[in-house]
Specification:
The complex is a heterotrimer of chains A (305), B (390) and C (315). With 390 residues, chain B is an alpha/beta fold. Chain B has 13 helices and 14 strands. In chain B, strands 7, 8, 9, 10, 11, 12, 13 and 14 form an 8-stranded mixed β-sheet that branches. Chain C has one domain. Chain C has 315 residues and is mostly helical. In chain C, strands 1-2 form a two-stranded antiparallel ribbon. Classes of the chains: A mainly alpha (305), B alpha/beta (390), C mainly alpha (315). Chains A and B meet through helix 1, helix 5, helix 10 and helix 11 of A and helix 2, strand 8, helix 8, helix 9 and helix 10 of B.
Chain lengths: 305, 390, 315
């Protein structure tokens, strides 16, 4: 029972992190119709910026805020110089071009920061385990991730649902031509949305950094999961991304936690310990395939054209 | 048409460099030089280069040419690079190999072409057993040996029960099997994680905590070791369940692990403070040549690989076509190994000591590794009986 | 337009002639490695050509094509491991297994369109990847070494480099010929029609999904052949050949060479793999050149190399 509670929290924390990454991805995808594989690179850049700024300022919070700003700016510059020219092109062109960007970012990071990776140490007040229920301890930092990500999700929800910019974003996601026809400065809106997505990815990266290390290529595996999330949730839908992210996070973590024991009841111990990690990684893709077979446009499709 | 010319030019360039053997000693070096584990490959290259400096960049009177190839930590790429070294560069020796799976994929190419392969790190159990070959030598260990030494140390400490965690690839399985082979207490649980992509160990740590085992044993080389120690510290387990490791704390990971690594014991066949003139010279010159870096056991093994090759080339006076003579010489392990003298078993795996290492703050306040005790002397791997060579 | 076709034909003819004469060059210069390298290039060109059939002609953007490389390879590797070394069993099993896999995932995936199709094919390929990783008996994550290449009862010796190279080249040319026949057949016209206007084709009375599915299965089977050859070439098969980045590599080859042209993918495979080899020899930081190069090709080189060749001769 205690095990289950802890594992659910672990799954929730991972899911919320995935949501931060997926939110930017789904906005860019839904509004600009751009498949951005380099989103994972922005996640990586957020972590590298944070490690650099935290070491520089000596304050975790200040460094994190600076890193967020830096990723925002980087995202806008990237959109302005390169990705803008890809709008309206074939999805395959996006895949190829942004794949090239991944290669570029990875090597650029290696040139600037070296191949070894960086450490992003936590301030002492975040390293202690917290007793959440009698007898159940949970790392304070992981709790902090859950709280921050939930707050960001709430802000994002309010921002998209209650503000004028949010209205434009929603309009853009469901009908791109319309907001252009309304005389909105679409180029500026696109740059802003991309910057916002980049900042969210950067936030996910810098929050994950103290748990994992800051290293080259850290965004690539999680990027594919983020894609899975937005496809399950329905492209362009923030709500869909949120629910799908939590779902994927829970399935991944719980699968890893409980599958090995289940398998050991059918297989011998050696085969089970090889098969279990593979099977639990497979669960997510199985889930996506099932969702798409039943609902070819995801659970909460935003475009109803 | 431009593209066609350009293509032809590119092809011609790629196909150039036919091999003229004879006047130089050619050594291929396959390791990981890109991606997150490139630090390991770089350290091996640094140490190999230092060894060549110490040898005057000559072996048996002939100049040495080394061709470094990046395996990208992928078995199929490593295999491809090995093929290139054997067929295109026609090297006399191939050294390197960090990863067991990369080595296993590349082994057949080297053995079939009768090119000497010196593993400077990877030591899968197959290599010591049924796949042993006259053309393959190791300057490291068989994977099981180090964790087996750790298991012995845990017995000495009176540890009653342990929870094992490791990555799901050849070396990971060997490592956990190694602890189990010597540890006399109870193995309460055993978890494998996806390698190299899984870096969040929260589920495994939670299970370890719930298993009520007295201690945890892990094997996570490179960056994964940093992440594991981070998460282990954050989970608050450090006070409840002491950690025992193999290949998880080294000079490369230490600057990132920082205080998390203090008090985490590991077993190793080489530690930077081992006595011996050769070793002192290696450590001093390494720190001089590569300021800001510290040598690691990976590097020490690569350095020994260069010395082993040198001993063979010197014995045949540079005539690398005398393969039998070179093999016979290498079997004597007739060089000043950084770890102190060792012998080769029938399977060309060293029979050697293993030491207990700990993390301490040195005089300048920096964290460094220190030899605490000798856990086991002249240890031979458990698989040498399965090797058909006698 | 006519001269454009001519330049492309000349380049294609030169390409085929070069590939045919390569073993001669290799034996004259004593450079064996060039043959090993080009055997791999030819095999991957075959895979790229099969992807081009569904992607370039059929408009089906599969992001999971590398799965068949693994399935074909594992068919050979697993049979060899169990002591069945005959190529007359291994190759048919490899092709059949790929065809069945393509049939199942095609039937499910073709319900979706666009990006969703890209993602569902990716999902199935990742599942195949993880299944292979979980096969403890066949090496799991570490892969499987194949100690004896497929045995064709003295008919052809796969361990002979030149014979094996020509076998691979013959397979490539055969597959290109088949693709050419398919594309110009009534069936091929329907598939291409479905790409440009599905509703109209359905309205005329063609069962679109069924045509697409057949095309998808043919491409999968061809790629399975490539996988069986690749396993023989490397004497090794591991889950890594199915990883999503490998599917990405195949896509890059097709787009680089020119989607929807017969020889484009072959040219793309040759250029991409040579470039990778060359750049990685010049600098360890080769990706910092390769990355922007891909970007530039997308931005300024529409239609890949074949497209550029076409425009070059027109302008």
């Amino acid at each position: 029972m205690l095990l289950l509670v802890e594992q659910i929290l672990n799954g929730l924390q991972f899911g919320l992190l995935l949501f931060l990454l997926a939110a930017g991805l789904t906005l860019v995808f839904g509004i600009m119709d751009l498949v951005n594989l380099a989103h994972g690179s922005l996640y990586m850049m957020g972590a590298y910026f944070a490690a650099t700024f935290v070491a520089w300022t000596g304050s975790f919070v200040l460094g994190a805020v600076l890193a967020l700003g830096a990723t925002l700016v980087l995202g806008m510059v990237l959109e302005f110089t390169t990705l803008r020219h890809l709008y309206g092109r074939d999805h395959l062109d996006h895949v190829l071009a942004t794949f090239g960007l991944i290669l570029f970012f990875n090597e650029a990071v290696r040139l600037i920061w070296g191949p070894a990776g960086l450490a992003l140490p936590l301030p002492p007040w975040l390293t202690v385990p917290v007793q959440i229920f009698p007898g159940i301890y949970y790392p304070a930092y992981r709790l902090a991730i859950i709280v921050v990500a939930l707050l960001v999700a709430l802000l994002l929800y309010l921002g998209v649902m209650r503000t004028r910019i949010g209205m434009l974003i929603r309009a853009g996601a469901s009908n791109r031509e319309m907001i252009g026809a309304l005389g909105i400065n679409i180029k500026l809106l696109y740059t802003l949305v991309f910057g916002l997505g980049a900042a969210l990815a950067g936030l996910a990266g810098l929050m994950q950094a103290p748990i994992l290390t800051v290293q080259i290529g850290m965004g690539e595996n999680i990027l594919i999961l983020a894609f899975v999330v937005i496809v399950i949730g329905g492209i362009g839908s923030i709500r869909g991304a949120f629910l799908a992210a939590i779902f994927v996070g829970l399935i991944d973590t719980l699968g890893r936690a409980f599958l090995p024991n289940l398998l050991r009841q059918v297989l011998d111990s050696a085969s089970a310990s090889t098969a279990a990690p593979a099977l639990s990684s497979m669960l997510i893709y199985l889930l996506m395939a099932m969702v798409l077979v039943v609902r070819p446009e995801g659970l909460f499709p935003a475009n109803r054209r | 048409m431009k593209s066609a010319f350009w293509l032809a030019g590119a092809a011609a360039l790629a196909l150039a460099s036919p091999a003229f053997a004879g006047d130089t000693i050619k050594i291929g070096f396959v390791s990981t030089f890109s991606g997150p584990t490139a630090v390991i490959g770089n350290d091996m290259r640094n140490s190999f280069e230092l060894a060549l400096d110490h040898l005057g960049r000559k072996m048996g009177g002939k100049p040495v040419e080394v061709i470094y190839e990046d395996d990208q930590q992928k078995p199929d790429i490593g295999k491809q690079k090995t093929e290139k070294l054997v067929q295109s560069d026609k090297v006399d020796f191939i050294a390197g190999y960090i990863w067991s799976n990369v080595l296993l994929a590349s082994l057949k190419t080297a053995v079939d072409s009768q090119t000497f392969l010196i593993s400077a790190n990877a030591g899968p159990s197959q290599l010591a057993g049924e796949l042993c070959s006259p053309y393959v030598f190791s300057t490291s260990w068989q994977n099981d040996q180090t964790p087996a030494a750790m298991g012995l140390y845990m017995n000495q400490k009176g540890v009653k029960s342990v929870f094992l965690i490791g990555p799901n690839y050849a070396a990971g399985k060997d490592m956990l099997a190694g602890v189990k082979s010597t540890f006399k207490g109870e193995v309460v649980g055993e978890e494998y994680t996806v390698w190299p992509s899984q870096l969040d160990f929260s589920a495994e740590l939670t299970k370890a905590r719930n298993s009520k085992a007295e201690s945890i044993f892990v094997f996570y080389p490179g960056a994964a070791g940093v992440q594991f120690l981070n998460q282990y510290a954050q989970s608050g387990l450090k006070q409840q369940m002491p950690l025992y490791t193999a290949f998880t704390v080294d000079e490369l990971s230490l600057p990132l692990q920082k205080d998390n690594a203090i008090g985490v014991p590991g077993a190793q066949e080489w530690v930077n403070d081992l006595p011996g003139e050769q070793n002192k010279r290696f450590v001093e010159d390494y720190r001089k040549k590569y300021p800001g870096l510290r040598p690691t056991y990976y590097g020490a093994q690569a350095y020994d690989a260069a010395q082993l090759i040198d001993s063979a080339v010197v014995a045949v006076k540079g005539d690398t076509s005398k393969k039998d003579a070179m093999k016979a010489e290498m079997e004597k392990a007739n060089f000043k190994s950084l770890r102190g003298a060792f012998k080769y078993g029938n399977n060309h795996i060293p029979i050697q000591n293993f030491y207990l290492q700990d993390v301490v703050k040195d005089a300048s306040g920096e964290l460094s590794l220190k030899t605490v005790a000798t856990i086991v002397k002249d240890d031979q791997d458990r698989f040498h009986d399965k090797c058909p060579m006698k | 337009m006519k001269s454009a076709l001519q330049v492309r034909s000349v380049v294609s003819a030169l390409l085929v002639a070069g590939l045919l004469l390569l073993p001669l060059y290799s034996s004259l210069t004593g450079n064996i490695f060039v043959l090993t390298m080009f055997t791999r290039i030819v095999i991957l060109a075959l895979a790229a050509a099969s992807l081009n059939l569904i992607m370039g002609y059929g408009g089906m953007m599969s992001f999971g094509h590398a799965a068949y490389l693994g399935i074909g390879g594992y068919a050979v590797g697993m049979l060899a491991q169990e002591g069945i070394g005959s190529g007359f069993i291994q190759f048919p099993v490899a092709l059949a297994a790929s065809a069945i896999f393509a049939l199942v995932i095609g039937a499910l995936s073709l319900r979706t369109r666009g990006v969703y199709f890209i993602m569902i094919t990716l999902a199935f390929a990742q599942m195949a990847y993880y299944v292979a990783s979980g096969l403890a008996r066949y090496g799991g994550d570490d892969g499987l070494t194949i100690y004896k290449r497929s045995d064709f009862a003295g008919l052809i010796n796969l361990s002979n480099r030149v014979q094996f190279y020509y076998l691979c080249l013959a397979c490539l040319l055969l597959v290109l010929f088949l693709i050419w026949r398919i594309v110009n057949s009534r069936f091929g016209m329907v598939v291409q029609g479905l790409r440009s206007n599905e509703q109209r084709m359905r309205a005329i009375g063609f069962p679109g999904t069924r045509y697409r599915l057949v095309c998808f299965v043919i491409a999968g089977t061809m790629c399975g052949l490539s996988g069986a050859l690749l396993a023989n070439n490397t004497d090794f098969v591991s889950p890594a050949v199915m990883y999503w980045t490998r599917s990405g590599d195949l896509m890059v080859m097709v787009i680089l060479g020119g989607m929807g042209t017969l020889f484009g993918p072959v040219l793309g495979a040759v250029v991409y793999l040579l470039l990778e080899e060359l750049l990685s020899q010049i600098t360890e930081y080769w990706a910092i050149i390769m990355g922007p190069l891909l970007l530039l090709i997308v931005l300024f080189g529409r239609g890949g190399i074949m497209g550029v060749l076409g425009r070059f001769s027109r302008g």
